[in-house]
Amino acid sequence: MSASAQRVQQALQAAGIKAHIKELPQSTRTAVDTAQAVGCEVRQIAKSLIFKTRHSDQPVLVITSGANRVNEKAVGDLLGEEIEVADADFVRQETGFAIGGVAPVGLVQEMPTYIDEDLLQGDTIWAAAGTPYTLFQVTPEELLQITPGKVISVR
């Protein structure tokens, strides 16, 4: 298992979550890829997206349902500062993960975190586990337990 996936596994264990990292032979870079790989609906995929504030260059994590697109203006209004999608270098520097493998746990630093209320509607959630080939499954309650996120509507 890669160092990134090990960091996610350790974070899950430290939080008391018994989820195990699953490694797939195909990429799980997109929500559609992931849903097809594990046999679930796209809405059950947790996309961990990194944005940055436009003026202060601070990272912001939005964990959204794979079926939704984030309304950047609405999230920026909550923060009191406009946000934009972060580039690959910023994502790796601020999270320790590459785009396509950003996990909701095991980040190298804390940051403002928002969780899409739609993601919490099902029984299970699949999230990236540090690489584009690894993921783990949790319940909505467990996701709320392992992240410092505020639940919002991201649409």
What does this structure look like?
The protein is of the alpha/beta class and 155 residues long. Helix content is 28%, strand content 24%. The chain has five helices and eight strands. The protein has helices at 3-14, 31-38, 72-79, 88-95, 140-146, and strands at residues 22-23, 45-53, 59-65, 83-85, 113-116, 125-128, 134-138, 150-152. Strands 1, 2, 3, 4, 5, 6, 7 and 8 form an eight-stranded mixed β-sheet that branches. β2 (45-53) and β3 form a beta hairpin. The longest helix is centred in the N-terminal third of the chain and has 12 residues, at 3-14. The protein is globular. The termini are far apart. The model has no long low-confidence stretch (mean pLDDT 94).
Number of strands: 8
Based on secondary structure, the structural category is alpha/beta
Strand coverage percent = 15-25%
State the helical fraction.
25-40%
What are the secondary-structure elements, in order, as H or E? HEHEEHEHEEEHE
Summarize model confidence as the mean pLDDT: 94
The total count of helices amounts to 5
Distance between the termini: 35 Å
Low-confidence stretches: none
Cα-atom radius of gyration: 14 Å
Major β-sheet profile: 8 strands, mixed
**Backbone shape:** globular
